[in-house]
Amino acid sequence: MPQIETEPYICTWLSYKILCKNPIEQVMIRMVLTDNQWQTYEEEGFLKLGKVWTDEELNSLSVRMDEIMTGKAKLDYERLLMQREAGEGFEQSAQTLGFKGATLNYRKIENLELDPLFLSYIQNPLFRHISEHVYWKAHISCFRAMFMNKPAYHGSVLPYHQDRWTDLDRDPQVTVWTALDPATKENGCVKIFPGTHKHLINSDHPSGFLTDQQADHLLEHQEPIYLEMEAGEAVLLHNWTVHGSEGNTTDKSRRAFSVCYMDGDTVSASGKPFSIVFGRR
């Protein structure tokens, strides 16, 4: 067994800061979660993955996101779902296909798997390992690859919900949420209820949102925890883990990139197609 010298653990998808003369072994080390990490995820419904972007990668993706929002990216904007946040003299727009004007005030942009730079992040080998472990399949599709933004002194409140959609013939179970900016309690970081992934609370809602009564009942028995994160850090979420977020009360934006991975055989009742990001059908 070759000897491996290690520096303090930094979970980036290009390097774990592991020095190893055997490149095959180095790749194996940085592509998998440990048994203890899997146990935590299965018990709690979430797992902090640590830093998954270097500063250089983070800067490249941030610049790319600004290009997309300001209309400078060479993309087919008619294939992007875009929602402009309220502000700058505009009301919050509907989330529909197409460009809504050059602004950094977008709330959500979906279908970012169509962008080569974001696709390269979506296809992170660690995320492939996670998806194949959960679904027991090599072909994995992307339900959505989404930019989310809470602009300074604004940002919509997101009520408590579980990520599931009755339009699908099976529920996705894997979401990786990555911070583009520091995510804090003050700027509206995600807050979750650990352990709530073990059953559905409101199976009748088409998008899994809790009723006010269900949310109040949950709060009577459990306090949410705030997922404060540094820029470049990611968290693995089970889709059924109840989560939500508040608005942004700071002078800095809170931007993030969220990818929902699902079984590649998943079918939408509406006939919506999904991109295969790992393997083939």
Descriptive overview:
Helices cover 22% and strands 25% of the residues. By secondary structure, it is of the alpha+beta class. It has two domains: 1-30, no CATH class; 34-278, Sandwich (Jelly Rolls), CATH 2.60.120. The strands form three sheets. Strands 3, 4, 5, 6, 7, 9, 12, 14 and 15 form a nine-stranded antiparallel beta sheet that branches. Strands 8-13-10-11 form a four-stranded antiparallel beta sheet, with no helix packed on it. It has a two-stranded antiparallel sheet with strand order 1-2.
Task: Considering the chains and any ligands shown, give keywords for the structure.
alpha+beta; Jelly Rolls; single chain; four-stranded antiparallel beta sheet
Number of helices: 6
How many domains is the backbone divided into? 2
Distance between the termini: 37 Å
Helix content: 10-25%
State the low-pLDDT regions, or none: 1-29
Q: For this structure, what is the CATH class of the largest domain?
A: Mainly Beta
CATH topology of the largest domain: Jelly Rolls
- Compressed to H and E, one letter per element, the order equals EEHHEHEEEHHEEEEHEEEEE
CATH homologous superfamily of the largest domain - what is it? q2cbj1_9rhob like domain
Helix and strand layout, with pairings?
Blueprint: E1 5-6, E2 18-19, H1 23-30, H2 35-44, E3 46-51, H3 55-69, E4 81-84, E5 96-97, E6 106-110, H4 116-122, H5 125-135, E7 140-150, E8 158-161, E9 174-179, E10 191-192, H6 212-221, E11 225-226, E12 233-238, E13 243-245, E14 254-263, E15 275-278
